Every structure is written in C-alpha cells, then in structure tokens.
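Journal club side-thread
Mid-discussion, someone asked how the predicted structure for our own chain would compare to the paper's figures. Pasting it here so we can look after the session.
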Amino acid sequence: MGHLSTHVLDTMHGCPAAGMKLTLQRIDGLRVETLKEIVLNQDGRNDGGPLLDAAGMAVGRYRLLFEVGDYFRGRGVALPEPAFIDTVPVEFGMADAQGHYHVPLLVSPWTYSTYRGS
C-alpha cells in the first residue's frame, strides 16, 4: 500500500526539526491545491503518520514547502534579513500510487539536501 512521508533533521543542532511547519501541495498544471499543513513532532515527523496514506495517493506532481527560516528563528538563530534560506520548496513526481515515497530533508540556515528515501 502506497504512502508519502517526510522526516526533517536540523544539521546545525544535530537533532530532528521539531516544530517546523510544512505544507503539502498537489500541482496540476497551473492549479495548486494545498492538501495539508502540519507542524513536525519531536522526531521531525508528522504526528498523524504518513502525509498521504494509500487512500490519498495519486499519480501526479507534488510540492512540500518547509518553513526553514521560521524554524531557525524560533530556535534563536540570528538570521540575516532576508534569510539566505527561508522556505525550501521540494517538488517531486509520484508515478506509482502504490509506491512508498519518503522525502527527507537535511537542513541548516545555509544549506539543505533531500532525496527519495526508503
């Protein structure tokens, strides 16, 4: 059964990015639909489990918006204005509605990386 999940790690502090806000969107041509807005739990994950479960999975284009600048400001990190990295958009395609898509983010105020995890 397919599902979509994420996990965010704060590489500056060496811990999960607890409290980071993120938005999940579906992109259909010029139409963008917000599917979910959440705040990550103490483990840097969604409290409710997958962002999309098997019933919500559909082939298509998606975007995760990670509110990195707000997260680091909330941790007391002095950021320039404007912040070098503020919102991190990760756009990806899901070609298999039965597949497992895991989109981890490793982030600091100065860099980030992501990949299709397992």
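Post-session note: The chain has one domain: 3-114.
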